[in-house]
Amino acid sequence: MGTQPYIIRQGDFWTGLAHRHGFEAEEVWSGDANREIRGRRANPDQLHPGDIVYLPTEPLAGQSVRARQKNAFRARVPATSVHIVLHDTDGPLANEPYRLEGLGEVREGTTDTDGNVTIEMPITATEVSLVLWRRHTVYPIRLGHLDPIEEVSGVRQRLEHLGFHGFRTVRTSDINADEQDWDAVAVRAFQRAHRLPITGVVDTATRDAIRTAHRT
Predict the structure, then answer these.
(1) Which contacts qualify for 154-160: CB closer than 8 Å, 24 or more apart?
(2) What would the pLDDT profile of 6-64 be if each residue is shown by its tens digit?
(3) What pTM was computed for the model?
């Protein structure tokens, strides 16, 4: 099977690429051409803009048709699950009613006692809105936009989701007049909260703790 390079853009993820370009996701990911990227990305659905992957030059064979006769086909768009846990400073947002907008018909539901929400999305979707209407709050949820945790952007995204990246988490003692490294401030805040050595540097222990707390 011939392959050609493809440069990952923001929002690309492997399952979506397989559907869009017509190839078997697991087979192509495990092929020899993608050995290098497999060594750097444990999760093929968390790729980083600029990563180079190799896609087949030819799509899967299509369905045969009969000339001058009616041909019927049924297409299925694969779906994926997005799991979210909602907390505020007082703890989980338990039994919180919500609406999901952006998937056609509006869906309604309620978080469980731990603030969990699971969303079934077609992989062709790009963004949905989780509306907590009682709180007048809207959370945009973008499919395929979470960067790998090995990248600075991936660490930043997870710290933002966990509530550690922003002015509200900054302590006066964390910053001096010359310092504008908000990533380091967020890392220190996370390390303090999780009783890790407070260095502002994402070492292996800190990265593992962020991954565990974020669950990705």
Answers:
(1) 154/46, 154/48, 155/183, 155/187, 155/202, 155/207, 155/210, 156/183, 156/186, 158/210, 158/211, 158/213, 158/214, 158/216, 159/183, 159/186, 159/187, 159/190, 159/210, 160/186
(2) 999 999 999 999 999 989 999 999 999 999 999 999 999 999 999 999 999 986 666 67
(3) 0.81
